[in-house]
Amino acid sequence: QVQLVESGGGLVQPGGSLRLSCAVSGSIGSINAMAWERQAPGKQRELVAAITSRGTTNYTSSVKGRFTISRDNAKNTVLLQMNSLKPEDTAVYYCNVVLHTTRGSVEEYWGQGTQVTVSS
Predict the structure, then answer these.
(1) Helices H, strands E: what count in the chain?
(2) Can you tell me the distance from the alpha carbon of 88 to that of 74, in angstroms, rounded to the nearest whole number?
(3) Long-range contacts made by residues 1-4, C-beta under 8 angstroms, separation at least 24?
(4) What is the DSSP letter of 64?
(5) Residues 69, 80: contact at Cβ < 8 Å?
(6) Angstrom distance (rounded) from CA 78 to CA 75
(7) Among 119, 31, 23, 3, which Cα is nearest to 80's?
(8) Which bin fits 76, alpha (ψ -120 to 50), beta or left (φ > 0)?
(9) C-alpha angle with apex 117: 33 to 94, nearest 5 degrees?
(10) What is the distance, to the nearest Å, from the Cα of residue 103 to the centroid of all Cα atoms in its chain?
(11) Are strands 67-72 and 77-82 parallel, antiparallel or unpaired?
């Protein structure tokens, strides 16, 4: 059993910052890729940022230069620092991980989602 617990969402004014955190626990052997996705009302879910086990990152073009994804392998945690937030960043943000379990299988999991609202 694997659990993902997200935190850090909320309401922020345009230009403000938020930091999302996702802690992974349970039957974890090793974690491969970690990522953040988001889904705005009436829109498809999109990949926001991802980071490999070696630390290679990639971002969707709309957040480049404003968002930073990082991971703490010792704590099985992935972070998303969001700066210069815009109203169009408003969405539910989901943590996503691909990992090897202690049983040896490769599995993918998502968190429950955390709401980010950017509004004045």
Answers:
(1) 0, 11
(2) 33
(3) 1/26, 1/27, 2/26, 2/27, 2/28, 2/99, 2/101, 2/107, 2/109, 4/95, 4/97, 4/109, 4/110, 4/111, 4/112
(4) T
(5) yes
(6) 9
(7) 23
(8) left
(9) 20
(10) 25
(11) antiparallel
In the block, residue with structure tokens 């994804």: 69
Spatial distance between the Cα atoms of 61 and 115, rounded to a whole number of angstroms: 21
Contacts of 113 (CB under 8 A, 6+ apart): 6, 39, 92, 93, 94
Which three-class secondary structure state does DSSP give residue 47?
A: strand
Name 49's Cβ contacts closer than 8 Å, sequence gap at least 6. Answer: 35, 36, 57, 58, 59, 60, 63, 67, 68, 69, 80
pLDDT, tens digit only, all 120 positions of the chain: 899 999 999 999 999 999 999 999 998 989 999 999 999 999 999 999 999 999 999 999 999 999 999 999 999 999 999 999 999 999 999 999 999 988 889 999 999 999 999 999
